[in-house]
Structure prediction request, 236 residues.
Amino acid sequence: MSDLDPSALFTRLARVLAGSDTSQPLELRLCRAYLTLLGGDGAAITLSYTDPDRVTLCTTDDTAARLEDLQDVLGEGPGTTAYRTAAIAVADLGSDRDPWPLFTNAARGIPGAAVVYAVPMRPGGSPLGVLTVHYSAGIDLPDPSVAQYLADTIGAALVEASPAHEADWRNSSWSSRAEVHQATGMVVAQLRISPEDALALLRAHAFSHNVTLTDIAAQIISRRLRFSDDPESETP
Prediction:
């Protein structure tokens, strides 16, 4: 399989996020960053896909919104399968052998979608939601391992509290919390982003590398880890 380089990929994600319009919600900017890195005509992020508390956090366009609504109404589609199986699911709307006949037949009437990829966001191992991408032409997902890594990382950035990592931060000593605060400030200076975005990146990096938030903070403070590949960026 692939040339997946987590550090390089994370740096690219951080750079795209840093260049995004900060007046827009973080979830929408992360969704658009995914499209920038992987391609696609539109995307959506939906949490708790098959659960009663399902919520679509963002859609980049009307086609994505209609595809998410359709899957919610019908209870089937690639997003539902991706959430239940924790694996990437693909709907080829031009095929008659699709496993979701109701969804596929209805989705053919939605302009702008020929193929729909659903990638589970599973930063903690179990899916917390699905990142769905649609293409207007029938093409393959550029690299499934990269698609999965980015979905997991974006999922981690959206998690407000993690049993394994965020709880570790909240329950840690004052000095550990101070380190996270200092590291957040350093990422703000490196990427010229808001503290909210910087903390989201810290959280995402911790999840994607299976370490604690305080571990990531220590690496940043000691300058063993940088979120910018610009040597001119300032760090306090």
In short: Confidence is low (pLDDT under 50) at residues 161-174. The domain at 6-158 is CATH 3.30.450.40 (Beta-Lactamase).
